[in-house]
Amino acid sequence: MAFELKMNRRGFLKVAGIAGAASLGYLSLDQPVIKALAQGTYAASEEKWVATGCVGCVGWCPLQVRVANGRAVKIRGNQNSVWTRGKVCPRAHLNLQMLYDPDRIKTPLKRTNPNKGRDQDPGWEAITWEEALSTITLKLRELRDKGTPERFVSLRGRYDSASADLLYSRFTKAYGTPNSVSHSAICAESTKAGRWMSMGDYDYSGYDWYNANYIISFGAPLLEAHRPVTGNIVAFGEVRRGGKARANFVMVDPRYSVTASKADEWIPVNPGTDAAFALGMAHVILTEGLWDRSFVGDFNENSPVKGFETGKAISEDYTTEAGEKEETFKEASTYGLIKWWNVYLKDFTPEIAAQKTTVPAETIKRLAREFAKAKPSIAASGRGSDAWPGSGSFNSYAVMSLNALSGSIEKVVNHRPSVKYSEEAVKLEQDEVAEEGTKKQKIDESKTKKFPFASVVTNNVADNILRDYPYPVEVILAWWSNFAHSTPGSKRWEDVFKKVPFVVHHTTHISDTSIYADILLPAKTYIEKWGYGHPAGTAGLSRGTTLFQPAVAPLYDCKSELELGLELGKRLGEYYPSINKSFEGIGGNYGDTAEGYVRARTEEQWNAFPGGWDEFRQKGATNHSYKPKTEFSTPSKKFEFYSSTLKATFEKLNMTDEDLDKIQIKARGDVVYVPHFENPIFIGDKGTYPLSLITYKPMLNQEGRSHNSQWAQEIYLPLYDTGWTNLAEINPETAEKFGIKDGDTIYVESEVGKIRARAKVFHGIHPEVVSMAYGQGHFSYGKFAKNRGANPNAITGVMYDHITGMAAFFNTRVKIEKA
Amino acid sequence: MVRYAMVIDLDKCVGCQACVIACKAENSVASSTPDEYAKKRLTRWNRVITVYKEGKYPNVSASIMPILCNHCENPPCVKVCPVGATYKREDGGMVLQRYERCIGCKYCMIACPYGQRFFNFTEQPELEYHNPDVPGRDAGIVEKCTFCVHRLDKAIAEGKKIGSPDGVVPACTEACPAGTRTFGDLDDPDSEVSKLLASRRNYQLRADLGTEPHIYYLD
């Protein structure tokens, strides 16, 4: 086909030339013959728009793909989707270059060289799916028959809800391993913590920008990489010039980012002090009486105390003249305000916040007033404020508490409504082996004293596999994950993949992880497969479900994660009746295929359309409206400034002060359970390593998967007009101190290791940090991705926000020198 | 007479570059390899630049700005072309390039004050995702933004409406998630572009040169 097109173009030029000569003048492009040629001969042939979705992030945006003669040639937002306003972020367009990337894995591959290493040629040999799947089935049977199914670990990366339901959850449970490990704890877990501690739901928040007058972001890159990317950008355009008052936008971040450049005010803070900033604001809001009376409540009118005074504790109740006890402060939808004030906030003045953040107290006061008065207001936390060791969850809690004080909860700071999919057609069955296996301790130590509320501790799996704790691992199935690139201390994962005897990687490109695999399975790209998903917290009030369906026939001999799960279930089902029962008939009336499964699971969704399934396929998206909650999932049913949810979790585990020490929490007593500030902690001493390393995700990073795309690479860093690399960004003052000039090649070194990078001297960087974009520095991911820039994860130390198991990304001190 | 123009609201633009990629996809514009990038052999019909104001930490201020061909009323590139390869189309006012006529002398590139004409240094491969509606371009010629003339002409042929908010528009305008761009007829007082220009302070790039650009910026 490509050849034919080439001929057309040549033919066009030739004919045009002859025509030009023959007429002794110029034939305008409006001449019919030239016009037809100029359009190419394909213009008149078959074309359609297919509705499907992007799986680039948890936004799962609905898309439409233009298919001309069986080839996908254009992507746009799905016009039927209300919450995306029919738009889509730039990353969705990259699907085309990913789909047709010549570097894709085209067939299952088997390693022939038993030696593993970056310098080793794996000696890939093409095999059939039959051979690949029967080898994998055999390995999985061996483990199960030994009675050790827990030695099988599944490492999930990017996914949609269908593959999460079937491969991540059902398959591992039926097989019998507790070790379903997702990438979530290198992504957003601690950002969910503020919501969990205060409102009891462990999930993303949805910010309703459209109805907000004021937005303050603490390290959340709302316009670059913060989910849902499309929703945020669409909303930003509208709140800026949508007809109503222009919302004010403040960005708190040690780095002048794209998001900061769009803010009305950029406030650089000391790294890791966002919570101090937020708490300073909270103190001002209370002492100046600016809190939202309808959400928070007010002092009892007969109470002897009428307001909050710095340093003064407030008695929780008072005795009336009649001798009865009355609450001093009558809280409306909140719980624990006075306790928070007494045990912590009364002394946390803006002056203290100023000391920690280096932002003048006057600025903190002014922003507190603006935030509280401009209601409805949004305070957002994100990666920059929350991916910190020990303190991450508390930082997110501190920021969330501002939303309660301003009465924004369930007005503009929304929960993520659950979406109901139809019940799976067959019940999950577990035999004795599966029951025993899934009861074993999960290898990541989640929900232990070390990681009290973690649902997954992605990065800890590496250390535990390396020390065979609590048991050795023998088989890994990694799918759409690339932990040898994307985790702090990424090198450890290379050792893991060397150590574990049988590693399968299901992915699109031979990635940093793939080169250690024993079997490589080619995966379908987003727009070649079946699936469904409902987006993470959206920017507006409405949201929806997205249907993923193949826009074009799969390019190569590849399968989706859903298909892999169905295949493995079927094959193991031949040996184990309980697995067979868990998978046979899973597609209900529609057949045990990926399409059948998706159709069965989304029955509730497509039944809502008069045209049923066919109409759902044509529309590709449903739209739901939002119902605000009136009570929360906490013991008190209120928004808690004193987290009984956290307290119960700690009490259940009998957490002692010593245990708190171990998980790097310095606060003691009741302070642990209220929004409070923990000093940031770092790996490396300040004398040897004077700077701290901060990393960020540029818009076109797409979680490390975009780097073989020329479209993404050549415009990678728009602030610096720089493509095809990342940079070590430093302040001019810092540059001078270390004798570095813009463009110099430098070493950035931590206790963990050292990398080479090009220096960028830029006024928008805090003088005590080195800032680097995340995503480059692949040592394998295709010819364009390989060896561009450096991977800061390679020199980032391994630490956690222990409460949620979230990996810390901002915990590493570094030194720099000219290379 | 129809005179197409685009209004870009910089207040809304978040520098996401969806317009850049959508343009590349729609017009099958070549992407650079790392080697070409190092040599600045870039074809960027539509690009996003960042303009900084003077200032030291922490007083940093920047404006992110999309740039494309200005489809000038008075285009210097057309004046200098020795072979009449570039011309201003009467219907619509777009500045277009006759690829088969271009001799690659680059005179137009020097004449363009906006740096929005691009020389094809190498033979570009035909790729699977290339748009069948646009002609391919050979090495040795100059190419540029067409205001997606193929989309507009198709719309006219099909009797569809042209222009924001609900008509056919260039790919960059359609793709912008923030709704930064508005496209339409300058000569129609009821068009969105005319209404926007009448209601908000606006400017053109280097209007002092007398090129009369058809791209307007709001800030």
Automatic annotation (TrEMBL), chain A:
Pfam family, one: Molybdop_Fe4S4
Keywords of the record: 4Fe-4S, Iron, Iron-sulfur, Metal-binding, Molybdenum, Oxidoreductase, Signal
Keyword rRNA-binding: no
Annotated ranges, domain 4Fe-4S Mo/W bis-MGD-type: 47-103
SUPFAM superfamilies in UniProt: ADC-like, Formate dehydrogenase/DMSO reductase, domains 1-3
Alphabetized InterPro entries for the sequence: Asp_de-COase-like_dom_sf, MoPterin_dinucl-bd_dom, Mopterin_OxRdtase, Mopterin_OxRdtase_4Fe-4S_dom, Prok_Mopterin_Oxidored, TAT_signal
Keyword Oxidoreductase assigned: yes
GO MF, any single term: molybdopterin cofactor binding
Domain of life of the organism encoding this protein: Archaea
Family to which this protein belongs: Belongs to the prokaryotic molybdopterin-containing oxidoreductase family.
Name of the protein in question: Anaerobic dehydrogenase, typically selenocysteine-containing
Organism: Candidatus Methanoperedens nitratireducens
From TrEMBL, chain B:
Entries under InterPro entries matching the protein: 4Fe4S_Fe-S-bd, 4Fe4S_Fe_S_CS, DsrO-like, ET_IronSulfur_Cluster-Binding
Organism superkingdom: Archaea
Pfam assignment, any one: Fer4_2
Gene3D superfamilies from the UniProt entry: 3.30.70.20
SUPFAM superfamilies: 4Fe-4S ferredoxins
Signal peptide as annotated in the record: none
EC number: 1.2.7.-
Domain 4Fe-4S ferredoxin-type: 4-35, 60-91, 93-122
Keywords annotated in UniProt: 4Fe-4S, Iron, Iron-sulfur, Metal-binding, Oxidoreductase
Keyword Aminoacyl-tRNA synthetase recorded: no
Gene Ontology terms for molecular function: 4 iron, 4 sulfur cluster binding; metal ion binding; oxidoreductase activity
Oxidoreductase in keyword set: yes
Listed name of the protein: Fe-S-cluster-containing hydrogenase subunit
